[in-house]
Design goal:
single chain, mainly beta, six-stranded antiparallel β-sheet, three-stranded antiparallel β-sheet, 9 strands, about 0% helix, about 45% strand
């Protein structure tokens, strides 16, 4: 389980479900203070995507996507190349099948 960002926060905390007795661990810092974003687990269940939200340093709605993933007990965060065209705070995001993306 990952908790990320918040009001004026750039931190993450990770709870490894296979090691619950270890409790919450400090995760990787986000590259900026980010809150009110959505999150989506990737279809392979190996990463969490943070979607848009409010960038507190700039006081702007974000167009950015950030991927958080863990390997060998170490978690990482990286900004994705893909971006939204319009910045959003409090977005709703979910995975959909590719067949729904071919709208005309």
């Amino acid at each position: 389980m990952i908790v990320a960002g918040g009001v004026s926060k750039a931190t993450t905390e990770v709870l490894f479900m296979s090691r619950l007795s270890d409790g919450w661990q400090k995760g990787p810092d986000l590259p900026l203070k980010l809150g009110t974003m959505a999150s989506v687990v990737t279809s392979d269940e190996k990463a969490l995507i943070l979607v848009a939200g409010h960038e507190y340093q700039t006081n702007q709605e974000s167009t950015s996507l950030y991927k958080i993933y863990c390997a060998n007990g170490v978690c990482h965060v990286e900004k994705m190349l893909q971006q939204l065209k319009i910045g959003r705070s409090y977005p709703v995001a979910m995975l959909i099948p590719d067949s729904l993306t071919s709208c005309t």
